[in-house]
Amino acid sequence: MIRRIKLRSLAIGGVMTLLFVVLVIRIYVVQVVHAEFWLAKAKETWSASEKIPAVRGKITDRDGNVLAMDVAGYTVAVSPEVLNKLGIVDEVVDKLHELLGKPRDELYEIATKRNAEGKFYRQREVRNEGWKIDKELADQISAYREELRNRIGEKEVGIYLLEEQKRFYPKNSLAAHVIGYVNKAGEAMNGIELSLDELLRGKDGRIKYERDGNRVQIQNGHVEIDPVVHGKNVQLTIDADIQYYLEKAIKDTYDKYQPKSITAIAADPKTMKILGMASLPSYNPNEYWETKPGADFDYAIKGLYEPGSTFKIVTLAAAVEEGVFDPNETYMSGSIRVADQTIRDHKREGWGEITMLEGLKKSSNVAFVKLGYEKMETSTLKRYIDAFGFGQPTGIPLKGELSGMVAPRYATEWATLTFGQGRVQVTPLQQVAAVAAIANGGVLMQPQLVEKIEDPSDGKVQRVEPKAVRRVISEETARKVGEYLEQVVADGTGQNAFIEGYRVAGKTGTAQKVVNGQYEEGKYIVSFIGYAPVEDPKIVVYVVVDEPNDPYAGGGSVAAPVFKEITLQSLRHLGIGPSNAVKALNTGTRNEKVIAVPDVTELAVSQAREELRARSLNLEVVGEGTTVLQQIPQPGTNMSLSQRIYLITEERSKLQVPDLTGLPLRDALEICSLLELSCRIEGEGFVTAQSLSEEAGGRVLSLKLEPPGTPAVLPDGAASDGDEAEEDGSTGEEGASSEADGERQGETED
Questions:
Q1: Is the confidence at residue 404, as pLDDT, over 80?
Q2: CB atoms within 10 A of CB 707
């Protein structure tokens, strides 16, 4: 018995010893052999890692107005586990449907979602309607959550707002095609957002730290930081005010004529800095998911058109540079034979024997065939076309820019190329760059869209300087071409672009559209391009309208007025006053335009300003109020565009004396009466100078007046305007054609 007990004890002891040996070996393997592996696993348990999101750089206009920025975005999430536990699924689904607009069945599916084990999920995001919503909507959801908490007496009600970042565009659709957008997934789409994404995006940082069992950071634990690199800020050359003028002008025309598209570009011709660039249809980048098909297409750099007669500017410049343009040379207008085809003027019977300068003003196709085809070698004309930048990208920092095409094959195609039809397609931006080269004295400039790039971390600024591509024509040639184009506006097909007080050069164009290889009757691309002031160009503007719904619409009747509105408002904004502020009421054959003053009293100042600017009227706000209490002149008064409307926004006791320069005596006296000033008058006509003094009887305003026609200079921002050309058909806006035995007819109107 004792022996058996001893053997059993020995066996048990042996087993215990063996187990202990195995345990020791195991501990050795874990702590020594596999020490690094298990230490790494432990550190994973101890450590936590958090992302530090980079802030995407701001995009601003040239004056620092923010066009794109990062703001807080909130993602709505729900807890199916909590909602079902509390029995409030249906109520929450109904409320989120009301606030977010997401279908009830989709919300119900999210709120009752189970995992593979059949258990309710702890948290599910509500996408896409609840993804990165703005603060206003987030506040409404937060308020509902608080109300729900108070009503059911539970702190946890299964509704969450996850704070993130989203891209925000303060001016909504303004310059949408230029800026582009960033979608909710953080992907840059279109425009500057895409082309400069690497600079704007920055780099997310990360922090790693050790934590205890309660997931609290250990005070003296190891910390690793991968620093965040915030995106760089980009300042554009765009002027938000000019962009607004441009977009409003094309919107009015778009609504009136319902074209397939309309595009306008404004630039500084000396530097080719883009001041404004827009196309319609357009979209709101804050709501990019609602964009209609094609509305995000940027016609300024991707739209290809037969330019029509605006291309004659290139032929004219080449002819002047080559010395083959004699403005006094005569020719027989109407038609010309090239190979086996007859090319006609838009007025098929022509104007008889006229000078080359008259041919330019009337936009005679025959004149330009003679200049560009008969008087120059085709290789010479092509050399100038290439030098002006056609057939190649301009180099603007936007993705997707097209090169266009200039590829004539036969004699007739070389002939029609001289007036912008046939095998030639250009982008609007190429047109602007070419005409800017003439306006600035003959140098082709690369279009510039970025003014500077700033690193927010150290404040370093990288400025983008204007870049000259090549000299195309001499300064003398550029000056002559500008003077010839000025006559097109003053006494030719471009009279609707005339601006009283400013020298304007420009050219109309209306190209018949090609459909299935044939020119189609009634479908045109109408355009106008020009610059001002001719003596010192500050702005070049191009407007192109694709297929307006009026078959009789032409470049002079549709596009030229849009050019005029954009250019006049932009010149005023830039502080470029007219060369003569007080114009005679009758100067030669052109009368100063008179317009009835609209009633803007009781309107907000911003609304009144928009109403008056839409009519190209000068205005001055008097006082610091926000509502128009009184206006001078009174509503219904006939006034010229060289005069100014005063918007009174405060009680007279609080008002300062405004600038009365350019006012007739009647309106000046009315303002003096309003301000309770004594008024001392010298001369007659319109106010040219004023001075305020204190005398024994009170404040005295001395006014110097001079009769109409006496030169004077208006203060910055003032301007006068002139008549548009009468639309009586005298400009011959019909369409030029080239025809071969009655088989082919392409029309261009100017």
A1: yes
A2: 11
309 and 363 in contact (C-beta within 8 Å)? yes
Tell me: cis bond preceding 533? Omega within 30 of 0 counts.
yes
The secondary structure of 251-297 as a DSSP string is HHHHHHH--SEEEEEEEETTTTEEEEEEEES---GGGGGGPPTTTT-
Residue of 79, 195, 261, 309 marked active site? 309
CATH: 3.50.50.60, 3.40.710.10, 3.30.365.10, 2.60.40.1930. Which one for 240-286+297-586?
A: 3.40.710.10
pLDDT digits (tens, 9 = 90+) for 702-739: 888 776 544 433 333 333 333 333 333 333 333 333 33
309 in active site = yes
Handedness of CA 471, 476, 480, 482 (dihedral sign): positive
48 — pLDDT class (breaks 50, 70, 90): low
* Crossing angle between the packed helical segments 89-100 and 104-111, to the nearest 10 degrees: 130
Q: According to the CATH classification, is domain 594-706 in 3.40.50.720?
A: no
pLDDT at 444: 97
Q: Domain coordinates of the chain in residue numbers?
A: 240-286+297-586, 594-706
CA neighbours closer than 13 Å in the CB half-sphere of residue 34: 9
On the question of pLDDT at 399 being above 60, the answer is yes
pLDDT at residue 505, as a whole number: 94
